[in-house]
Amino acid sequence: MQKYRSYILPAAIVLGLLLHRWCAMFSFLVPYLIFTILLLTFSAVDIRRLRLCWLDLWLMLFQVTVSLGSYLALRWLGADGVVAEGVLIGVLCPVASSVAVVSCMLGANRETVTTYTIVGNLLVAVVAPVYFSFIGTHQDMPFFESFWLILRRIGAVLGVPFFAALALELWWPRGSDFLRRYKGLSFYLWAVALLFTLGQTIDFIFLHGEGNWHSIIWLGIAALLFCILQFGFGRWLGGRYGDKVSGGQLLGQKNTAMGIWMAGYYLTPLASVFLAFYSVFQNVWNSWQMWRQQQREAAGASAGAAPAGK
Questions:
Q1: What does the buried/exposed string (b/e) look like for 21-45 if buried means 16 or more CB atoms within 10 Å of the residue's CB?
Q2: CB contact set of 219 (below 8 Å; sequence gap of 6+)
Q3: CA 310 – CA 58 distance, rounded (Å)
Q4: pLDDT tens by residue, 84-97
Q5: In the chain, is it the N or the C terminus that has fewer CB atoms within a 10 Å radius of its CB?
Q6: Coil, helix or strand for 66?
Q7: 254: helix, strand or coil
């Protein structure tokens, strides 16, 4: 199955396009799949080794400043408000809960990825209510009410598997070791979750596309540009701290389902189309990265076997 991994993401995109209505019906299963993925991921990490580093701080600073700065710049330039809101939520959107699945396959440090998965999501829970207090449709909502709404959605998926993994590590190490042996299953569970999520987002575009194609085209262009920017800048920043893969994935790979919910609840609902396009673009990029990694591993294996064959 290893050699087919790089084709799973493109297959999910194609099937999501063809079967988007069917996939949308099963999207309610995604939180349960993500919970299982995270439990397997956290069980494979020595939680006591998780530490904040300078890379985490720079990534958080980028999300906070570039999201608001881009929104204000676009509004000042006279851009469509929906596009500006899409960019705001697209940059502020928290890192994907399942980011470790792809990142670790590409050679990222598991502890670095896991640490930012936690602190990056908590950052959004604090910053987003502040921004939504003067941007969007719920500017009169009290900060703590908004904070609790967002934290509850993040915590339900992220916090429960984290504390479950911690409890297993502390009080039932054999159970933790059992889950650690099956951490490879997280990729295939993620592929199923991705199929349902992509199908749901593609279905969303079809449902909201009629009569809004001008805004949708610009949202798609903006999503592509910011996808390139975030992965590119993240890799550059990560390279300065010896882990370009972690930097790129942590800044570029977004929890688009969470972003779509925030856009739909706090902003103009059409702005969430930015995340729908972004979801497709980020997974095309991830597919290409996995294909390149597979080629490198195959070349390395061939080079290693060559002397034995002489």
A1: eebbeebeebeebbbbbbbbbbbbb
A2: 82, 83, 86, 270, 271, 273, 274, 277
A3: 50
A4: 999 999 999 999 87
A5: C
A6: helix
A7: strand
Q: Residue 224 has what pLDDT?
A: 96
Q: How far is CA 17 from the centre of its chain?
A: 20
| pTM given for the model | 0.86
- 2-296 belongs to CATH 3.40.1160.10: no
Query: Which residues, at least 6 apart from 262, have a Cβ–Cβ distance to it below 8 Å?
Result: 89, 93, 128, 150
Helices 185-209 & 273-309 angle (0-180, nearest 10): 150
Give CA–CA dist 213/207, Å, rounded. 12
> Rounded to whole angstroms, how far apart are CA atoms 6 and 300?
17
- pLDDT at position 131, please? 93
> Over 50: is that where the pLDDT of 310 sits?
no
Tens of pLDDT, residues 192-207 = 887 887 777 777 777 7
Question: Using CA atoms, how far apart are residues 93 and 239, in angstroms rounded to an integer?
Answer: 23
Tell me the C-alpha distance between 8 and 205, whole Å. 22
Q: Please state, as a whole number, how many other Cβ atoms lie within 10 Å of the Cβ of residue 139.
A: 10
Task: Please write down the long-range contacts of 67-75, taking CB distance under 8 Å and 24 or more positions apart.
Answer: 67/91, 67/92, 67/131, 68/92, 68/131, 70/226, 71/135
As a whole number of Å, the end-to-end CA separation of the chain is 29
User: In the chain, what's the furthest Cα-to-Cα distance?
Assistant: 75
Contacts of 219-222 with CB under 8 Å at 24 or more apart are 219/82, 219/83, 219/86, 219/270, 219/271, 219/273, 219/274, 219/277, 220/273, 220/277, 222/83, 222/86, 222/87, 222/90, 222/274
